[in-house]
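**Paired protein data**
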Amino acid sequence: MSNLAIAFVIAGKGWAGVANFTKQAIVDTFIKLLNEKPLSRITVTEIIETCGVSRNTFYYHFEDIYGLVSYIFQEEIEKIQQITDVSDTLSEECSLVLDFLIKNKTALKHIYESAEKHQLERYIFQALDKVMFDFIKKLVADTDIEEDDIHFLARYHKHALIGFITEWLSSDNDEDLIDLLNRISNLSEESITNYLKSFISIIKQ
């Protein structure tokens, strides 16, 4: 048992605490390696040697490296799903998603260029779908707009943002994603506001 594992048990966190700590250590090690090299060049052997855990420990938590990739994105999605407070601006709302992208651009770029590209795309789609829908729903709270229309607006503006994000990931320039987000968000908010004005004027006729 490692010194850290012993410390966890002594601190009263028990074996569940040890398992969670070890699992997170594997995740952190993998992301560190992914920031240094392409996904195809990372092996389970390298992960366990860098992390200091056994091969059995790795496979206790993850089926393989692809399962590890899936777990990371699922964890991020769950964090976003748990957020109940909706920001006052679209840029603030989307920044919850983009913070993860910006902090891990190199690692995510390596995933985007790999066979696991679909995992990253699914994360971006699901995350933005949630924040876009929540924001627009708050914006139209005092109107009679149907939920189907809210979903349509969310999808429309989500795809615009996704296009910019994937271009940002696939390029080598260091364009400020936050600045880009603010510009897109301002256009989207204006577009949504104009849509609402048109919708309300039609209802009043």
